[in-house]
């Protein structure tokens, strides 16, 4: 275990041409204190979490100190936001502090969100507030433990520096760990500014860093694209299966490694609604839950376009991208059949899934409670409690089809039940739980974050002492609107 000072840094991104970034340091926050830390995330970089080390972490995450081995910078990128191209984006309120290399030769970007203005801040103040940092902190760690590809969160720090949103809030930071901070929007930036030599440098860097097996392949750029779309399809299939809505799937929020990235007004499904829009500012529903697979496909199209100068002809890129819908569907069907405890996928299973989602929609079933209860379903035995609370006729109709299907399954009911409990979580980060935790934290009580985090770190376990975190939301907590202002 080492302190931040003793970690080994590689800082490869800072060795790229200066056109990729602006060197910049963080603006200090006043009277900082550490709000929460994720021990599993600290373990990833073998970071010591003893008291002195945490004091140093607090100084660094509040911009009051730095490490000599950091190569701190703000990255430039652009991207499609709500369907329109925005040529002027970049790290407007975050900095890549450096890239840690662990003893196991794993690389982790250390990225500080909320660190003050940069040349890419436009009209923003470069800051982040406590509620948005806590939401990203809890959700990235929750997603990780649900088995969904994601960036990680090491810690949240708050301060007395005032930040003005709808009301006065506290300037806070989130220290993110991620394998990369390269977004689709990085490629778009060099494509639309017609800097094709830098576009090539970016693609070569990306391949060298993350896909070294492709370095000597004559089709390396096509294969890079293939890798990106495969990872993106898998990530979005995971979102759909878990009932997760990202909320702002702009191309600048799409990681090149298919990790859930840039947590804003995200939300998990409570009562299942196919058209769930978690982002209060998404008036047209562009990023509604049901739209996510199509939007990710569209976003991959934007990346394909940006890669064109490296490939010269559209046809091979088109051939790859045409596979996307099929790729996505097969991942999704596999994940959903796993949730249903089915050992093999059969041709009619997509129909079984579709009819189930229709049932959940019609009956306003809680998505997570339903699947968790289904783990305990066995034909010819009393229904699990949650299923008994639902309208019986449509439910029993669907269950009888399911029971027929189970006859061809390769496991018996106890084994199926056990397998299902390992993929159908008891605990998710419900919006209202995040909200309650945030309200406490804003009063200076950080304990509830720790309590919630501890169940989210093993969401498939029973945690009988924390039953309250598994309950359906109260009415006030069902339709919380999360704004983009963060
Ligand atoms: P996001 O919606 O968080 O993905 O941000 C979109 C773009 O706006 C990114 O380039 C951010 O860096 C920038 N941005 C968001 N909030 C702020 C802020 N408070 N100050 C400066 N830039 C910001
Ligand atoms: Mg963003």
From TrEMBL:
The active site is at residue 252. Its cofactor is Mg(2+); Mn(2+). InterPro entries: SelO (IPR003846). ATP binds at residues 90, 92-93, 113, 125-126, 176, 183, 262. It catalyses: L-threonyl-[protein] + ATP = 3-O-(5'-adenylyl)-L-threonyl-[protein] + diphosphate; L-seryl-[protein] + UTP = O-(5'-uridylyl)-L-seryl-[protein] + diphosphate; L-histidyl-[protein] + UTP = N(tele)-(5'-uridylyl)-L-histidyl-[protein] + diphosphate; L-tyrosyl-[protein] + UTP = O-(5'-uridylyl)-L-tyrosyl-[protein] + diphosphate. Pfam families: SelO (PF02696). Keywords: ATP-binding, Magnesium, Manganese, Metal-binding, Nucleotide-binding, Nucleotidyltransferase, Transferase. Mg(2+) binds at residues 253, 262. It is an enzyme of class 2 (transferase). Its EC number is 2.7.7.-, 2.7.7.108. Nucleotidyltransferase involved in the post-translational modification of proteins. It can catalyze the addition of adenosine monophosphate (AMP) or uridine monophosphate (UMP) to a protein, resulting in modifications known as AMPylation and UMPylation. Belongs to the SELO family. This is Protein nucleotidyltransferase YdiU. It comes from Endozoicomonas euniceicola. The gene is ydiU.
